[in-house]
Design goal:
Shape: globular
Number of domains: 1
CATH class: Alpha Beta
Distance between the termini: 15 Å
Strand order of the largest sheet: 1-2-3
CATH superfamily: CBS-domain
Radius of gyration: 17 Å
Order of helices and strands: EHEEHHHHHEHEEH
Helix content: 25-40%
Strand content: 15-25%
Length: about 150
């Protein structure tokens, strides 16, 4: 099985996309992350949904989950509100590292290794200078589980 067999057409965002719009895409389409593209439509980064949470959840709650319990439910439910006014550019991980990009002939193991190495839940698949789709962690696991049975 190759990357081309696992392609999913995912929405992309740009560096200037407002974070509330990006969060809406993640939630409405049940995505693990978003592919960030530059002005030419080429991959420039991957924004994992978990990184948005790291930015939105107060650090003291991440450091000590007991502190998260003392926030009343009405205020706890609004933690994403502090992201209003931010763009994707402002929320990308500082240590972007290796960009998870593969060609359509990449094997499932190559894709899995790339996801594991970069800690990103999706890989952009590029052919002839254009993004032809992405492979998500969910798609990769589902296909490999079905062939392992």
């Amino acid at each position: 099985m190759r990357a081309r067999d696992l392609l999913t057409p995912l929405p992309t965002v740009t560096l200037d996309t407002p974070i509330p719009q990006a969060v809406r895409l993640l939630a409405e389409q049940n995505l693990p992350g978003l592919l960030v593209v530059d002005g030419d439509g080429m991959p420039s980064a991957v924004l994992p949904g978990t990184h948005i949470l790291r930015m939105a959840v107060p650090h003291y709650c991440q450091d000590d989950s007991a502190l998260a319990r003392v926030i009343d439910e009405a205020h706890a439910d609004t933690f994403l509100g502090k992201m209003t006014g931010l763009t994707v550019r402002e929320c990308l991980p500082a240590d972007a590292g290796e960009l998870p990009v593969a060609d359509p002939d990449a094997t499932v193991l190559e894709l899995a290794a790339l996801m594991a190495r970069t800690c990103r839940p999706l890989v952009a698949v590029v052919a002839q200078g254009q993004v032809v789709g992405t492979v998500t962690l969910n798609a990769l696991l589902a296909k490999t589980l079905s062939t392992a049975s």
